Amino acid sequence: MRFSNALFAGILVGTARATLMSRAVTLPTYVQLLQQPATEEIVTLQIALRLRNIDRLEYMLRSVSDPASPDYGKYFDHDDANTIFNPSSDSRAAVLQWLKESNVTKIADFGSYINFATTIEHADKLLQSSFQYFLVDGTPKLRTREYYVPDDLAEHIDLVSPTTFFGRTRARAHHAPPSRDLLAYIQDSNTPALNCTPVTPSCLQKLYNYGGYLVDLNSTSRVGFGSFLNQSARQEDLSLYQRAYHLPETNFSVVLINGGEDHQDPLGDIKEANLDLQLISAVAQGLPITEFITGGRPPFVPNLDVPDTLHNTNEPYLEYYQYLLNMSDPDLPQVITNSYGEDEQTVPLEYATRVCNLIGIMGLRGVTVIESSGDTGVGAPCQSNDGKATPQFTPQFPATCPYILSVGGTQSYAPEVAWDDSSGGFSNYFAQPWYQTDGVSTYLSSVISEETRLYYTPFANFSGRAFPDISAHSHWPFYSIFSGGRTSLGAGTSASAPVVAGIIALLNDARLQKGDPPLGFANPWLYGPGRAALTDVTAGQARGCTGANPQTGRLYANSSVIPWATWNGTGGWDPVTGWGLPNFWAMMGVLNGGSVAAGRG
């Protein structure tokens, strides 16, 4: 469809006084310009309307999550959250009027966001953008390096997507071929001795001290996990895992979001999802589990035929959390864990902020959102992407969101030590939240040396949100799982996050049985009374900024080498293991108002 020059002139007049919303100053090394799209090609975009009362979010979240607050555990329901935070009717009306006056006819209004479809030529005029095809890690994506909106609409809009986010979302799991004697080992894995080579459910039970706890068969405690990048957990593999390790045999439910597909293909992308599911099952002992499979379809507009070239290339985070927040209270799991992420600086600030705020609202509704901290240690490639190529440590998103429970990784056992490649550090986007003030300031003032702190100051934002919060086993020895009908081994912070999710789900089960609310946003409790129930990790270190990918050894084309870039496991909070490892019965004791010892099984 072509538009007349007169129409384009009208659009330009309407956007002459415009606000720059986002700009990708430089392209990541994994992004290449591919080709110019046809001007008549259709593009579908989403306008995220400005949420109301976001300036009150942290205060409200603190009131329901701080154990010292009189409102602790008094969570908001679905309708309350919508009433407080949904965009104003003025914002919706202003954006809809702009689209209609600009002759955009394909519009879908979803309340907090508006989707629309138009031609590339029309979109470029509307947003003063330049949409082009870019190759992102081998995947063609239609993106622009900048876009604008009219000045009078800037106060009503958080962002338009997909635009300047060249997402490289990655799963955190690592896999190895099974050892020859793994099946024989499985047969003997339930012996009392602690043998964690490989890590099995009985080993996890001893490591994190949840033996002897029996879940309520009618429990309302539920746990969910996200699957992106065409990952899909297999019921057959879960059944094999449960039989091999004498776990309660249960099914799991699947919810498809934004074009996600539950393919159940033994030769497909299943290992990350299988690792998440099976480790949750190992710990949660029969509690209901839901997999949320999120695809990357363009924003939905009814009755629109979207070209195949645009299918499943969009970043999943916004659609994922928008869907979860729209779920009814009985259907929304109290714990959600995710094992995907990317370098924080590659995510546009406005996108990261919007996603993080949605996660904060999840906390207000009593949900613990868990994220693996990442598998790049102190960082890689350790260079800013603002055109200045400044050497810096590389934090990981979404683990840097202050409303997430960020889980780092350990290795070995008896004792566990910090894993070399467990990501941690300090956010360059998000300020240090209230609950971290004491623990992190103690680390900076008393734990690391003044010499080290001064040396790291140019590379790390010590006033930013520090991560991870806690940790669990993630690497050698690897976890035993089943994938594609066969035994396999898995590792990474993709493993530590679901283990913690299972433990939080057990704690919620115990609390719900007593009529208490679930833990919800657990960080204030973990940084407060809960830290007494965690096992401190004081050995090992995370490394990074060597000029190479820590997992593949591949040298980066553009990177900075920062000598002695490490985070050490130390007493108290540290940027590789957080406060340390969970201890279920000790955590139960503290939650029940007693001592650590009072809760032990």
Automatic annotation (TrEMBL):
Query: Which cofactors, if any, are listed as required?
Result: Ca(2+)
- What InterPro entries has UniProt attached to this entry? Peptidase_S8/S53_dom (IPR000209), Peptidase_S8/S53_dom_sf (IPR036852), Peptidase_S8_Ser-AS (IPR023828), S53_propep (IPR015366), Sedolisin_dom (IPR030400), Tripeptidyl-peptidase_I (IPR050819)
Question: Which is a Gene Ontology cellular component entry for this protein?
Answer: extracellular region
Active-site residues, as the UniProt record annotates them: E272 (charge relay system), D276 (charge relay system), S494 (charge relay system)
Q: How is the cofactor bound?
A: Binds 1 Ca(2+) ion per subunit.
Question: Cross-referenced PROSITE patterns, in alphabetical order?
Answer: SEDOLISIN (PS51695), SUBTILASE_SER (PS00138)
**Signal peptide from the UniProt entry:** 1-18
Q: Which reaction does it catalyse?
A: Release of an N-terminal tripeptide from a polypeptide
First-listed, main subcellular location of the protein, grouped into a coarse class: secreted
Q: Where in the cell is it found?
A: Secreted, Extracellular space
Q: What general EC class does the enzyme of this chain belong to? A: hydrolase
* Keywords, ordered alphabetically: Calcium, Glycoprotein, Hydrolase, Metal-binding, Protease, Secreted, Serine protease, Signal, Virulence, Zymogen
According to the UniProt entry, what is the EC number of this protein? 3.4.14.10
Q: Which residues form the Peptidase S53 domain?
A: 198-594
**PANTHER family per the record?**
PROTEASE S8 TRIPEPTIDYL PEPTIDASE I CLN2, TRIPEPTIDYL-PEPTIDASE SED4
| Task performed by this protein | Secreted tripeptidyl-peptidase which degrades proteins at acidic pHs and is involved in virulence.
What is the protein name stated in its UniProt record?
tripeptidyl-peptidase II
